[in-house]
């Protein structure tokens, strides 16, 4: 049951919701008290995608394998920078991410990845 349906406005869940979906969609959900479907959640950006239950394990595995095939240090650096820059002004975020990218570019494995790209070959990571 959604809180507003029993007289309780979901103020604390609203914090996360309004940071995940457009304001109009969040407000509609908060005051309307209706559950939404998985396809609708994907449509408004609450989740990345909706898949049939029978395909969930395979698609989850495939996506995890796709990420695991990337250079782990780059993914780790990028994940950290993604979360750090979200709280910064645009100018601060560009400066911060420029520094992060420079540090990433100095890694020997990054150089190997760029060389593989230029050679039109798949990169081979030493992970």
Short description:
The chain has 127 residues and is an all-alpha fold. It contains 7 helices and no strands. It folds into 2 domains: 3-50, no CATH class; 65-118, Lyase 2-enoyl-coa Hydratase, Chain  A, domain 2, CATH 1.10.12.
3D architecture notes:
With 127 residues, this protein is mainly α. The chain has two domains: 3-50, no CATH class; 65-118, Lyase 2-enoyl-coa Hydratase, Chain  A, domain 2. It is built from seven helices and no strands. Helix 1 (11-20) runs antiparallel to helix 2 and helix 5 (72-85) runs antiparallel to helix 6 (90-105). It is flat, with a radius of gyration of 20 Å. The mean pLDDT is 91.
Topology overview:
Layout: H1 11-20, H2 23-32, H3 38-43, H4 53-68, H5 72-85, H6 90-105, H7 108-118
Helix pairs in contact: 1-2, 5-6
Instruction: State the order of secondary-structure elements, H for helix, E for strand.
Output: HHHHHHH
Strand share of the residues? under 5%
Write down the overall mean pLDDT. Answer: 91
CATH topology of the largest domain: Lyase 2-enoyl-coa Hydratase, Chain  A, domain 2
Residue share in helices? Answer: 55-70%
In the CATH classification, which architecture of the largest domain applies? Answer: Orthogonal Bundle
What global shape is seen? flat
Q: CATH homologous superfamily of the largest domain, by name?
A: Lyase 2-enoyl-coa Hydratase, Chain  A, domain 2
Radius of gyration: 20 Å
Number of continuous helical runs: 7
> Please, how many domains?
2
Function: May play a role in fatty acid biosynthesis and insulin sensitivity.
Keywords: Fatty acid metabolism, Lipid metabolism, Lyase, Transit peptide
Protein name: Enoyl-CoA hydratase domain-containing protein 3, mitochondrial
Pfam families: ECH_1
């Amino acid at each position: 049951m959604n809180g507003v349906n029993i007289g309780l406005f979901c103020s604390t869940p609203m914090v996360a919701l309004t940071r995940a979906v457009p304001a109009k969609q969040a407000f509609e959900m908060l005051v309307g008290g209706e559950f939404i479907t998985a396809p609708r959640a994907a449509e408004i950006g609450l989740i990345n995608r909706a898949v049939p239950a029978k395909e969930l394990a395979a698609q989850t595995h495939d996506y995890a394998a796709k990420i695991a095939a990337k250079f782990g240090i780059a993914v780790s650096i990028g994940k950290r920078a993604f979360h750090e820059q979200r709280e910064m002004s645009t100018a601060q975020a560009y400066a911060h991410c420029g520094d992060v990218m420079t540090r990433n570019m100095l890694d020997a494995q990054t150089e190997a990845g760029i060389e593989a790209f230029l050679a039109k070959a798949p990169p081979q990571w030493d992970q």
